[in-house]
Amino acid sequence: MSAHTSASDDWTRFVDQWVERARADDRLRYLARDVEVAFTWRYGDRALWMSFRDGRLDEVASDAHLSRTNAFDLVAPAHVWDKVWQQVPPRHFQGIFAIMMRCPEFHLAGDHLAFAQNAHIVRRLIDLAREPGLPYEAPALDNSGLSNIIGRYLRVDLADGPHRIYVEEAGEGQPLLMLHTAGSDSRQFQHLMANPGLQKNYRMIAFDLPLHGRSDPECEVVAGKWSLTTSYYHDAILRVVEELGLRDPIAIGSSMGGEICLELAISGASVFRGVVACQASSHIDGRMVRWAGHPQVNESLFNATWVADLMSPSSPERYRDEVWWQYSQGGHGIFRGDIDFYSGDWDARDRVSQIDTAECKVVILNGEYDYSCTAEHSKETADQIAGAQFTVMKNLGHFPMSENPALFLEYLEPALEHIQS
């Protein structure tokens, strides 16, 4: 492969290299299995039409040769795509869903359903437009204590009936309760739980919410009915704490897990020593999405793709792949029902100022690449909580504990030390 060429330097050569990589890419070949769709990239006044047939990139046409069948257009000025296609793009330009939410110059024209059905193809093509690899070595985390993680089940009665709750534990010392994100499960914390250094000082506990991961339904379940509320989430956590007999635990969570950490600091302060709320604010608008459970959209592919752009492009690929894989495994309607809490029922804008950090310490951490709960969102919330600590985590995104656990640990350890001081 010749040296990478940017679109702004030589459009024709850039397209040729892009298409060559796309046609040779195994990931794209399997993601595109049985796909038949055509769409156009609008790069300022230039354009590139791509057609997939029988799972492969069958035809391409550029600029003047575009009188073809087309499902949708991805439209943006050249300078926007130049940022998106950088080897390590700037924050909020790391992927298609990032610019859809945070870049007003981007426009999706045509059939939005067809786009949702093929968003995984678009995302992989963006990856292939970039120069391969990263310009630096990503850190590694010592997870040699993996075999020390022990799993078991609790029987917990909640408002909708009895549940089997799957719980994993590792380490000894200060209890550290780890809360997963919407639509996922406690595997997100596995790398941290396997770290020998953390195992020496903390009794780490992570559990799967009802109907998530390995917490299979004990009571009757109507598929697609799940809709998480603040009160249900809060009560489930307190019941697990009670069942495990935890004393003065520290709660840590990201995304909806970060939001509920703030709720625990408000209404569960007598139970918790402190909280580390990641990617959290008092309210988040704009994250409800109809495609997450749409009958004409592959839920497994769409949900995993929708969250993948929330991560930092500089996080190690193998960890980002894990996040994608875990999100592809959720039960029908679970992710969408969790978003009912994350971007709906949860609203503490008139309550976060009530948090007493003398009773329950609060640290808010925000990965800079998160375009859902941005650093600005988190800082605005932190500023309303007297005594709260706030830090922006460079080169991290929405899933810091799982997308780059070694880098996240550099921010987590000082946060835990502050809470215990």
From TrEMBL:
Domain AB hydrolase-1: 176-409
Highest taxon above the source species: Bacteria
Family matches, as SUPFAM superfamilies: alpha/beta-Hydrolases
One GO MF term attached to the UniProt entry: catalytic activity
InterPro entries recorded: AB_hydrolase_1, AB_hydrolase_fold, Carboxylesterase_BioH
TM stretches of this protein: none
PANTHER family, A to Z: HYDROLASE ALPHA/BETA FOLD FAMILY, PEROXISOMAL MEMBRANE PROTEIN LPX1
Name assigned to this protein: Pimeloyl-ACP methyl ester carboxylesterase
Protein's organism: Antricoccus suffuscus
